[in-house]
Structures are given as structure tokens and as C-alpha cells.
Amino acid sequence: MLLGELIFAFVAIRLDIGNAMSLLSRYAEYPAKVHYVGLKSVARYLRETKRRPIIYWRRKPMPNLPRGDFVQIMSNPNPNS
User: Fold this and answer.
1) Distance (Å, whole) CA 29 – CA 58
2) Around 17, how many Cα atoms within 13 Å sit in the side-chain half-sphere?
3) pLDDT tens per residue, range 18-66
4) What is the Cα–Cα distance from 11 to 5, expressed in whole angstroms?
5) Contact 3, 25 (CB under 8 A)
6) 8 or 74: whose pLDDT is higher?
7) What is the spatial distance between Cα 28 and Cα 31, in angstroms, rounded to a whole number?
8) pLDDT, position 37
9) pTM (2 decimals)?
10) Angle at 42 (CA atoms; ends 50, 29), nearest 5 degrees
11) pLDDT given at position 59
């Protein structure tokens, strides 16, 4: 059950856990204790990093992309200053 939930998190929003999920999902049919420990580690990582944004960047700006709130937040991370 945890494996499915973590795969959903990977597919939906947390691309940073892709490598771990790819490796752990290979052993879903016959898991050993080490695989359960790995799943627990990924869940712990997600809990500890839930407030950290994933920042994507590119070498050259693309002006044709829509501007959203995330662009404003990243261009001014401290709006009160």
C-alpha cells in the first residue's frame, strides 16, 4: 500500500523520488526487509522535505510560457523585505 502511495506522489508531484521508486518497485512482488526499510526512508524524506520547493531552471528564459504565482514567488522570495 505504501509503495502505491509513493508511486502516486512521484507521478503527481515529487519527481525527486523517481530513482528510488523505480528501484523499489522492481521488488514489489517479493520484497525483503531492506525494501521495506527503503520505502520507510523515502516516506521519511518526503516528510522532512515537504516545505522545500523543487526549483527548475533553464539556461535561457522562455517568454512564451505563462507566468504563475510560482514565478512571482521565486523572483521575490521575501515579499516583506
Assistant:
1) 39
2) 26
3) 999 999 999 999 999 999 999 999 999 999 998 887 777 778 888 887 7
4) 10
5) yes
6) 8
7) 6
8) 96
9) 0.64
10) 140
11) 85
Cell representation of residue 19: 530513482
Assess contact for 6 and 13: CB atoms under 8 A.
no
Cα–Cα distance measured from residue 37 to residue 79, given in angstroms and rounded to the nearest whole number: 41
Whole-number pLDDT of residue 48: 93
Instruction: Kindly give, in sequence order, each residue whose CB lies less than 8 Å from that of residue 15, ignoring residues fewer than 6 positions away.
Output: 54
Beta-strand ranges (E) seen in 1-81 are none
pLDDT of 2 strictly over 70: yes
Classify the C-alpha dihedral 3-8-14-20 as positive or negative.
Answer: positive
Handedness of CA 66, 71, 72, 73 (dihedral sign): positive
Whole-angstrom Cα distance, residue 28 to residue 30? 6
Half-sphere exposure of 24 (CA within 13 A, CB side): 23
Distance between CA 66 and CA 60 in Å, rounded?
15
